[in-house]
Write a structure and sequence with these properties.
alpha+beta, 3 domains, Cathepsin D, subunit A, domain 1, 5-stranded antiparallel sheet, Serine Threonine Protein Phosphatase 5, Tetratricopeptide repeat, single chain
Length: 437
């Protein structure tokens, strides 16, 4: 199962942003347009000073900073790009870069300044065009104005490791087990509930039923919440979330409306999203011992380079290899299984249809649909410092379900991946995932 994400998918509107450039500009522009941020992150420090086009240099710098969880640096680059260099930028890129700057300001807790900046831009647009053509900007404006006077979220934690029990239970759909679901105990406003630990959801979220029970204060309603499909929900502020001895003060939570079609299969009251995981920096999952650890001191990366990147509004993607093929996989602990996207099926159709067994599965998030798939008997994968084989890897054959906003990559690694290991370290401070058998 895939659960919703709140953050907007803020990708560059044009498939070819930079079409005329000279080396090294040409190489950077090619990687930029392919959104190969992992490669760009490796080479950019050495070549950035030789990039001739200042817009290309600062746009690349800002998006790399966004992609590798450096919001303060991202805002600095965006301030330069949207200030002195704005006259050099194509208008087709400006609306999306305005959204990026607003998101960077939000992450830096500059809510009122971001709201004023975006509202000024919308007023400018409204003089010459219908601003209903910019629904993402209008939604972001409502969010930022709702947050305008809100206290900023804050993490307060002890200077020691925080350990929590981890519950793993099977997901049973129409009598058939389809993976597993994990949760940890979290107290919200003084009451404890099981929260799904979900790297695939951008912000902590709770059901409408739970929000009503807790009496949370709504700051913004009619917010489109995307996952697999979409629904209109709202945003609220809680006094605190307590994850063991870690206190998350003033968290913004998404409030999810009910959907009987999905809820009757797997009802989730609460989701612990990336906002907290990024704020604390690191979490260690021990599937076999059924525990989680939030270390007081970040673990130095055992990997030679970063393998985790934020894309499409903040979704985490892992670099992986299957044989000699490089893959980009959504890393989603809220997904009960995992699988490959239709784009992968199209590239390997003959092999998949020869080796795989046809089947149908229910895929759910904000909506629910039946997908035609193949199940591969063994899928070799090399990532996170380990080599494994995933049995019964699902491969979807067609884009026949609700839209997945901003979907990129070749597939998704969920609980079928997590349960292969003794320990999985997820570190958003240094942008890596390491897995130990």
């Amino acid at each position: 199962m895939k659960f919703p994400k709140f953050l907007l998918a803020m990708t560059i509107a044009s498939s070819s942003v930079f079409v005329s450039a000279q080396p090294p500009d040409e190489n950077v522009a090619d990687l930029f347009n392919r959104q190969d941020w992992l490669t760009l992150e490796k080479i950019f420090p050495e070549i950035k000073d030789s990039i001739r086009d200042p817009c290309l240099r600062y746009m690349t710098q800002s998006l790399l900073d966004c992609s590798f969880n450096r919001p303060r640096q991202a805002l600095g680059a965006l301030d330069t790009l949207m200030g002195p260099l704005l006259v050099n930028m194509s208008f087709s890129n400006i609306p999306n870069m305005v959204l990026f700057r607003c998101e960077a300001m939000r992450l830096n807790k500059k809510y009122a300044a971001a709201a004023d900046y975006l509202d000024s831009f919308l007023r400018y647009l409204s003089a010459t065009m219908d601003i209903s053509r910019f629904p993402e900007h209008l939604q972001m404006s409502r969010i930022l104005n709702g947050l305008r006077d809100a206290p900023a979220p804050e993490i307060v934690r002890p200077e020691r490791d925080v350990r929590l029990p981890l519950a793993i239970r099977p997901v049973v759909v129409k009598g058939r087990t389809e993976g597993a679901h994990l949760s940890v105990p979290v107290a919200i406003n003084g009451k404890t509930y099981p929260f799904t630990l979900d790297t695939g959801t951008g912000t902590t979220a709770i059901s409408q039923r739970l929000a009503d029970e807790l009496g949370l204060r709504t700051i913004c309603d009619s917010i489109r919440i995307d996952g697999i499909g979409s629904r209109l929900g709202s945003l609220a502020i809680a006094d605190s979330l307590c994850v063991g001895n870690i206190v998350y003060k003033n968290p913004v939570v998404a409030v999810l409306p009910p959907n009987p079609a999905v809820d009757t299969l797997l009802y989730i009251d609460a989701i612990l999203g990336r906002d907290l995981l990024i704020a604390v920096g690191e979490v260690q999952i021990y599937p076999k011992k059924k525990k989680t650890v939030f270390p007081a001191t970040p673990t130095p990366s055992p990997l030679p380079e970063k393998n985790l990147v934020l894309m499409n509004g903040g979704d985490p993607y892992l670099e992986a290899w299957s044989g000699d093929e490089r893959l980009l996989m959504l890393f989603d602990t809220g997904n009960s299984t995992g699988g490959m996207y239709p784009s992968y099926y199209r590239k390997h159709k003959e092999r998949i249809e020869t080796e795989g067994a046809p089947d149908t599965v229910l895929v759910g998030g904000m909506d629910l649909y039946t997908a035609t798939v193949y199940r591969l008997p063994g899928f070799p994968l090399r990532t996170c410092g380990s080599e494994i084989g995933i049995d019964n890897m699902i491969v979807e054959t067609a884009e026949n379900g609700p839209s997945r906003t901003g979907q990129s990559g070749d597939g998704v690694l969920g609980m079928d991946f997590i349960r292969q290991f003794r320990k999985v370290t997820i570190n958003f401070s240094q942008m890596y995932v390491a897995a130990e058998k």
